[in-house]
């Protein structure tokens, strides 16, 4: 096992897959000469050369569509969005080309493509640069959506995503890139669509994903001091949702709080609530709680930003209310 | 700076009668144009009278010379993309009338099992990469298949057809910049039929000589009379060669006209263009002109034309029969092809 | 009262507001010379002239952004999307400019703008032209989202939307444009954010909006023959959600089914479920049911398209399951 | 076809020394450039050493002549848009150092109550319409305020600043087409500082003479040395007049350079550009050049420069003091300004 940063784990995943399969290439803004805006692709241009690592103009719609076209004829693009905030410009090619191509062509053209980059808030990046948009992508049939919470998961999931024959949207986080974790020397893959229990517990089920898993684990820690034994589920994948892991847990704990860094309306968290109440209605002792980003554009000021985001305090409070 | 593509007048081939093409080739080109025309007429009839076809259905009537001329020197392994006005391109690329018609009928025997419909013809077999409904949305895709050819070092060429109204959209701009910057083997063919739905070019674009747009990307370009099959062939052929051998993109503006409404359910003329204008353009029907030229050069005679018409008729009839006999998709098809690796 | 088509009601709403306020103008593809792709703006170019009715190039991102800029300095644009399928290209200007401008500017620049057009499936328009995207818009704080189900509501809501000082997304439906309904001669407004009970009932609450209200009313009719008395709530507004009208109804009926023409993941319907279980948990006798579009891109074939969409049969079945 | 804008060499004013501008005006222009420079230096210091500023913070150091020259003949009621690199434009448009600095600090006294931050300066008071973070995203907005001027028949002009990397994005293309088609009174100023983050222009654009891009929209255009304050003033002034009196758009490419990293947290040089290159450009520091020119023309002397520096120093100090004293936004501010008519 080696201790490495989240960004290094991603770099390894991409590099190993590029060694393994000549059809895999990396494209995005600043991924080459600049070594990545967040240094995720550091050294990859040197290692693989300009044929495999492409710096692009600032044309998200264009290069994302280019990736889809390349995937139609068998290449396996990894498209980096500098951040997912900018991916909105490319959404048409994701929604209308990548996600629908297989269906519209009656099964002829699949899109083996990964779109990856950081999503969510970092520090005081304000309204346009702090958005967690997984819910939009999760809404779309034809996509898979993955969101790891630590270096180990990130590497295993990204390798699987690159080998997947359907389009995969892969959400990272600016504030996690420097997080360190153990990563084995030997190769491993983590399946898409399977969640992971990050902490077992018997009193309440906390469902989270991505960066928020770590906040939730902190909250579970705090709760344990109050004698509350929370189970923390890391979904790892947003779509397809691992319903079983959630339902099994709720059947045991009879309580749930869903935590996410998304706005509350029409979000993935609300869908998880829906699934729980549908499948575990008779097991629920209280309404399912939710913790989410406040229903506002992200403010710049540090104090307001903190108030806008999910926090340990908010999770603890939601758990207490649910158990009350 | 920006290079004009050698135009037909200067090319050697152009100095030869009929571009130096042999009778078989010429005959086949005429056949293809007539096939498109009759196929589309039949589709309109089945849509309007028999309601066997649904949704939006955009016909290619009037523009046949563009597709036929542009693709005449393409190889089967070359890639072609089109917009929603895609039946003609699909047929010329080598798809059978049956699979296209069955798709229009929404039948399982259609090229996309009835799931795509008129706007979304696809054939992996002949490398027809669709049939796309968002204006301009397929231009980045075509740039991507060209990218793949460059990446692999194969010598395939991508040809991408779109309407003149697509030139104003961002996807066009972003694509042409990348294609030129990275020297991708792609030929962009803008079918300037003067209208996007009811909007005349000059009411939507600040520059009318669209081929000049390519200068902004330092890309080779040409405009060509899209009603002149051989000119279309010649200009595109040069662009294809340039793409295949020099891995360079070209932008071609083909000036053409649609003789019919925007889609089957739209009128051929109305507030936005007069009946007289349509009639005038019909005088330069690419099929009539090319037929006359071939007869004049004694490549074919009236009987050959009749022959073609009757062969086409049976091909279209056969397509309709095939479509009619093909079952509707079974209900399970609703859930297949969402993912290639089912969840 | 005059009997008129949905499209005429919309036309009246726009025309009256344009008469009333010289800052209101209409812009979109084919809205002028062509009289609208769906004839909603028929006659308006003739009536108001080219200064007030603008045909655009096919540049959704551009003209939607232009509308936002014009709204910043006090005009009140009505931007028509030929269909909301194409609005995805403009989403960046809606998400990052229209919805955030007031917040980012600390309250200085509001955006009095309406973006309207048809959403959802029509007949065999296939995957790229049949999308119901309200959930995406509803996700965004800073927007209001409206979705009427009949000519009367359409006119009253659109007039209110045009007078609203914040950005409003207004969803119509291709297949409703020819629907007829009574519309009073005298002026009226319908408030945004307030739902409407379209049919009272005591056994179960059905929550719907837009075109689907009519399908739901048909289902309620069918259910009444089986002795089931369903209450049908027409939300009229998607954001902000009228929670009270839903909760009051569920407290009475103790059962609910949420119906919508959206995909199931992270949709508005799932959010409504969340609100109900949160606020009426103790009143619920059974899990809340959902009817939604199947989790697939829309197929072209008529038989498959019908299977993909919400239907009377599906609603009846969901109600029966909920009441079982 | 496409018209070259009259360039400074040919203009009458250019034949006069110092564009015929009077001492007050010239003095004030120098003052503004120095104000920007010192303000940005202070911001960097407070960001790096005192962590009073957070988030992304993009400095305008090196590019001062562009903003100052371009806006010198603007009226207060004219509209200005900028990208995330917006402090300089905000100050020149007339915003106070205090409200800009307090915004950087995230304080309630900031122009946006601390909710916007470095990338989102706004002032309705002086018609500074932001501060926008999505590359190219504000170009349609500026086209919109220009549209409003045309719609209303007022004679306000919109000036829109953006980087050279924004030229490749769809929003640029769509906007310029509409502005030219509809003859909107807008001046697009592309600040070509040669790099978008770490990507050199020639690695991202297929055409390097960016002003030529305007030809594709049949729009008047010019390129200008953005380090030469008076040239910048002259060219923009002509464009502004054209917009104000003829309601016509212009595209100006201002060639400039940023002396610092892309944002405060990025290095000034590295893989993408050498230290030597940066040093070389610094030789043509617009402040130094302009100061020397004014001294040479005996418009000012060394003492005036010292005066300016000390006035600027107190203005910046006062800005910092104001920001420091301004409270952080109260928690309720989280929920205000989402809707103007609260729900
Ligand atoms: C992005 C987008 N906006 C609007 C439409 C609706 N629409 C379909 S075809 C069309 C006109 C396109 O005209 P043109 O590109 O000239 O092609 P033609 O139909 O003439 O072949 C429009 C506006 C669309 N499909 N996609
Ligand atoms: C659409 C979009 N993509 C990517 C980014 C990230 N980004 C911020 S600034 C920048 C470079 C822009 O360069 P340029 O336009 O030349 O302006 P400059 O920074 O040089 O002033 C990039 C890529 C963004 N903000 N928006
Ligand atoms: Mg056209
Ligand atoms: Mg730059």
Highlighted features:
heterotetramer; A: 324 residues; alpha/beta; 5-stranded mixed sheet; globular; B: 343 residues; Rossmann fold; two-stranded antiparallel ribbon; 8 strands; binds magnesium ion
Explained architecture:
The complex is a heterotetramer, with two copies of chain A (324 residues) and two copies of chain B (343 residues). Chain A is an alpha/beta fold and 324 residues long. Chain A is built from twelve helices and 14 strands. In chain A, the strands form three sheets. Chain A has a seven-stranded mixed sheet, with helices on both faces. A five-stranded mixed sheet of chain A has the order 9-11-10-13-14, with helices on both faces. In chain A, β6, α7 (151-163) and β7 form a beta-alpha-beta unit. The N and C termini of chain A lie far apart (43 Å). Chain B has 343 residues and is α/β, with parallel strands linked by helices. Chain B has a single domain (20-322), classed as Rossmann fold. Chain B has twelve helices and eight strands. In chain B, β7 (220-225), α9 (229-246) and β8 form a beta-alpha-beta unit. Chain B is globular. Chain B starts with 11 loop residues before the first helix and ends in an 18-residue tail after the last helix. The chains are: A alpha/beta (324), B alpha/beta (343). Chains A and C meet through α4, α6 and α10 of A and α4, α6 and α10 of C. The structure holds thiamine diphosphate (2 copies) and magnesium ion (2 copies).
